[in-house]
UniProtKB/TrEMBL annotation:
Gene3D superfamilies found in the cross-reference section: 3.30.70.20
Domain called 4Fe-4S ferredoxin-type: residue spans: 1-29, 31-64
Taxonomic source organism: Psychrobacter aestuarii
Domain of life: Bacteria
Name of protein: YfhL family 4Fe-4S dicluster ferredoxin
InterPro entries: 4Fe4S_Fe-S-bd (IPR017896), 4Fe4S_Fe_S_CS (IPR017900), PSI_iron-sulfur_center (IPR050157), YfhL-like (IPR047927)
Key words of the record: 4Fe-4S, Iron, Iron-sulfur, Metal-binding
Amino acid sequence: MALLITDECINCDVCEPACPNEAISEGEDIYVINPDLCTECVGHFDEPQCVVICPVDCIPKDPNHVESEGDLLAKYKRLTGQ
């Protein structure tokens, strides 16, 4: 499943450059994650880098975009051409 940035986000700017898929961008009020690009860092890292680096713990799994590990790996391969 993709990740989601909640309204607890403090706009600290650390998550956006940490995302290897460029799935995070500045939204109107807080940063947002594009679920079509988010692989939870599957294929890149062992754990989602935005979650690791977030100082306020505001990036849970998005219940509206449920995906299995296999789905995330397939998305990674599609996005990276591997």
